[in-house]
Amino acid sequence: MTSQVKESQSSDQKTRRPSRIIVAGLCIGIVVAGLLWRKTAWINFCQWQAERNLQSRDAEQALSWISQAYQADTQNPETLLILARAYRRAHEVEPAIKTLKQLFKVAGPSEELHREQWLVEAQVGDVSNLEKHLADMLIDPKGNAQDICETFVNSCVLNYRFHDAMRIIEVWQADFPNDPLPHYYLGRILEHQGDWEKAAREFSTALEVSPGHIPSAYNLARVNLSHNQVDAALDNYRLCTKYQKEHAAALVGIARCLRMKQDSQAARATLKTAQQVPESQRLKDFRAVGDPAYVARNAILLELGQLELTSGNYKAAVAYLEDAIEQNPKDRKARLALADAYRGSGELEKAEQQIQIVQKTQQAIKRLDECFDLLQKDLENADLRAEIGQIFLEHISENQGVVWLKNALYYDPRHQRARQALEEYYAKQRSSSHN
């Protein structure tokens, strides 16, 4: 009897052991599934937030959200695509290209990858692939119609293809009447063409559509200053700081207006505030309102030098302006101001040296204006585009010069002058990096 009981207990234990293992396995499975679901849900949420911020043109917030999704899973194709797009929208082209290469390794070729690749190319001025596929992309924009329009228009402006830009702006404006950017870009084009009055109207219209659109307020202020409307310019620069308190580009504009109103003390205080903005943020602020990096590099130093020059403090002006030229050797405004400062401090020989450099630059710019006028009559002229590129490269901006030279090669892949200029430029860059 006892042996039968023992056998029965032993049999029950054997039966219970597998059932406990099964229950434990199920529990672990539920926990793992829960963790995986939680991770997937978090990634989806971060992707959604990033997409939402991209739609509202807040690339920095989009990068913040999508970076968290990337940390959770570095191989998620959707995350990589949004990350590349966020980098591009934040003007960080190299990380965008790197992310697209990673996406290709993870998921292979796809229509979404190709679209983003064409947009990245256009971001740096090569609009050829985007232009080939533009009609199809606008027919089925996949929720990114405004982004596609903006990238194409901006690339056309970079390449001085204003007619093509205005053609897309017309469609963009009709489909998105509450978007300030079509008016903003049209204002920029009209400003390039010297039609200041119409440019001002477009910037004003953009502000009516979106009162907090900082680029439109900033560029309207610049137009105001070109007509010596200092009070109006000051109001528009201050409108920028209403929506972004320490906007570096706007602060420099405010200081310029205050200097012109002979309020040196307030101008100095404003420039001091601008100097406290981190350099990376300063570059972003200038870029966001359409000013190139070479302007951002020395804008504060230049305005400080102009302020001291106006106040008759020639030695202080020389110090600031020499630093400004060191930051941007191609800045002829800084060189003219430095020549005046040298004269004021009695250094006439140095002043003459600066004047000679400025005169040479002005001759080149006169030729540049002639090339632009000729280009309007023959937009596919590679010779003109190569000449424009060389003038930019030597006298104004190396980055813009490279864009124009590459653009000449787009119209004529064998263009000798453009190829040689680029080869010499890149050889010089390699030599500088080795030294």
Automatic annotation (TrEMBL):
TPR repeats lie at residues 180-213, 298-331. SMART domains: TPR (SM00028). Keywords: Membrane, Repeat, TPR repeat, Transmembrane, Transmembrane helix. The chain crosses the membrane at residues 21-37. InterPro entries: CellSynth/LPSAsmb/PSIAsmb (IPR051012), TPR-like_helical_dom_sf (IPR011990), TPR_2 (IPR013105), TPR_rpt (IPR019734). Pfam families: TPR_16, TPR_19, TPR_2. PANTHER family: LIPOPOLYSACCHARIDE ASSEMBLY PROTEIN B (PTHR45586:SF1), TPR REPEAT-CONTAINING PROTEIN PA4667 (PTHR45586). This is Tetratricopeptide repeat protein.
